[in-house]
Amino acid sequence: xxxxxxxxxxxxxxxxxxxxxxxxxxxxxxxxxxxxxxxxxxxxxxxxxxxxxxxxxxxxxxxxxxxxxxxxxxxxxxxxxxxxxxxxxxxxxxxxxxxxxxxxxxxxxxxxxxxxxxxxxxxxxxxxxxxxxxxxxxxxxxxxxxxxxxxxxxxxxxxxxxxxxxxxxxxxxxxxxxxxxxxxxxxxxxxxxxxxxxxxxxxxxxxxx
Length: 209
What we know:
By secondary structure, this protein is α/β, with parallel strands linked by helices. The protein is built from seven helices and six strands. It is globular, with a radius of gyration of 20 Å.
């Protein structure tokens, strides 16, 4: 790998814990040039995982959390408190309509079946999107998102933190440089579940209606 290719690789894989790319201001939005190098992010679904995603983004000096949206005020309370300067909405469609000139990128951390809908709406406005997994609820939705990303020329990433961490990026750099030779086999394992998941198995006899 040449020095220039290595530098490009590192630049492309180097952002903060979530792995979302901060792109040069001349490509932010559909021809829109922001007044600074700050990436203005809006969150759709800002409780739970959405809150932790925004916290990770906010660790970068290049990021400003400018708008929040959640249908549940109680779930959103912590994010609203953490980002008091951000506007707040209960409907992401209203948020995008009113804040479209103040947003460069959108983080989607809503319930699984609404990921594609919210992400597509943001991309259609030329906004870059970071979407939590699963990216879509169907193959058709995934195809529409792929087409939209190409059409609107926006940066996209799915929230697979385990696949975008420092270890994975380092291994990819080693592979790109030929340090480990030709890969013949890959071993993988999982530590999941790391907490109790699902519904406990019911015991006893119950009347079936």
